[in-house]
Amino acid sequence: MTTPNPATPTPGPLDALTDVPGLHVGQAQRTGNGHLTGTTVVLAPPGGAVTAVDVRGGGPGTRETDALDARNLVQRVEAVVLTGGSAFGLDAASGVMAYLEDAGRGFRVGPDPAQVVPVVPAAALFDLGRGGDWRARPDAALGREAAEAAARTPLGAPVAQGNVGAGTGAVAGGIKGGIGTASLVLPNGVTVAAVAAVNAAGSVADPATGVLYGRLYEGGRVAYPDSERHAAAQRALAAARQESARRWAASTHPPLNTTIAVVATDAALTRAQAQKLAGTAHDGLARAVRPVHLLTDGDTIFAMATGERPLPHEEHLPGSADFAAGAVNEILAAGADVLTRAVVKGVLAAEGVDGPGGVFPSYRELYKI
C-alpha cells in the first residue's frame, strides 16, 4: 500500500465542494408528471464570499453576473444558483433572494438590519421538455426549497451526485449527465473544490473508444472498454437518440445544452484572482467535454473564495513580498483539475431516464459497469 505524497494535492475528506469550510450545498428537484429538472444552491458563510464568473458558451442564461465585475459595488455574495429550466429557470434565484432577505443576509442598504438586497448570481442549463412538459421548469418556490436545504445541511456534509438538483434533467452528448463534485487539498493546506451540472452539447466520452475524456487526465492507467462492449454501447446510444427525437419535439436540433459549475476555495483571493480561477477552471471543462464552449452551450463557471486561509507570502521575490504568485498558481491549476473530476463523477453517478421526454441512458448502463 502506497502512502500519499505530502507534496501532491490529495482529495479532501468528502471529495466534494463542502470540503471548503463554510460552504453549504442544497438541492431540490421535480421529477414525474412531466418534470425532469431541478436547482442547486451553494450557500456562502454569513458575510458572503468573494465571487467571480467566466462565461465561455455562446448561449448563456445568467443572472446578476454583471454585479461580479471587480469595478462594481458589491464585493461578496451570499449564494450562487445553478438551475435547470433555461432562462425560465433563473426565476429560482428569486426564491433564494427571498430566503436570504428573511435571514437578513445580503448587501446592506439602510440602517435597519432587515434592509438588505441579496445579490444572487445564477446560471441556467437547458433541460426544457426532457420530462415531457415544456412548461415544467424551476421557479422561485423550488429555489427557496434548495436554499433552505442548504441552510439546514450541517457543515462538511456530503453532496448528492447524479440526478439531483440542476443535474436532474442534464444530458451530455445523448448520455445522461448530472451533478458531480470533487475537491483537492494542496500541500499548503488550501482546499479547492468544484460542483458541476454536466449538460454538454459535446460528448463526455470518446466515440472511438468509449473512454470518458476526463479519465485521461486523472493519472494512472486508463481502462478502455473492449471493442464489442463499445460497439454495443454506441448502437444503444444511437437508438436512444432516435427514440428521444420521436417522442418529444423538444429534442432540439442542434441540441441546446450548457455545463454550469462553481469552483471554490478557502484561500483569501482578491476579486481579480477569483476571476482568474473561474477562467482557468474552464480548462478542466475542456479536458472532459469535446467539443466545448459551442454556440449552443452556455458554459458558465463561478469562482467563490471564502478567505479563511491567507495566502503565503513569497519573500524571495525581489520587491514582491506580498505577491503570492506561486500559491495562486497552485489554486488555479487545482481548479481545472477538480472541475475535470467533477464532470467525470457527475456522469458516472447519473442514472438513465426513459420517459415521455426522451430516452437518456447512463454511461454505466451503456458500458455495463
Overview of this structure, please?
This protein is α+β, with helices and mostly antiparallel strands. It is built from six helices and 17 strands. It has helices spanning 92-102, 140-152, 227-247, 271-288, 325-349, 363-366, and strands at residues 24-32, 35-43, 49-55, 61-63, 76-77, 79-83, 107-108, 116-117, 122-124, 171-172, 175-176, 179-185, 191-197, 260-267, 300-309, 353-355, 358-360. α1 (92-102) crosses α2 (140-152) and α4 crosses α5 (325-349). The longest helix has 25 residues, at 325-349. The protein is globular. The mean pLDDT is 92.
Radius of gyration: 20 Å
User: Which of globular, elongated, flat, extended, rod-shaped describes the shape?
Assistant: globular
Mean pLDDT: 92
How many individual β-strands? 17
Helix/strand-derived category reads alpha+beta
Identify the quaternary structure here: single chain
Helix fraction, binned, reads 10-25%
Approximately how much beta-strand content do the residues carry? 15-25%
Largest sheet: 6 strands, mixed
The separation of the N and C termini measures: 25 Å
Q: Strand sequence of the main sheet, in spatial order?
A: 5-3-15-14-13-12
Low-confidence stretches: none
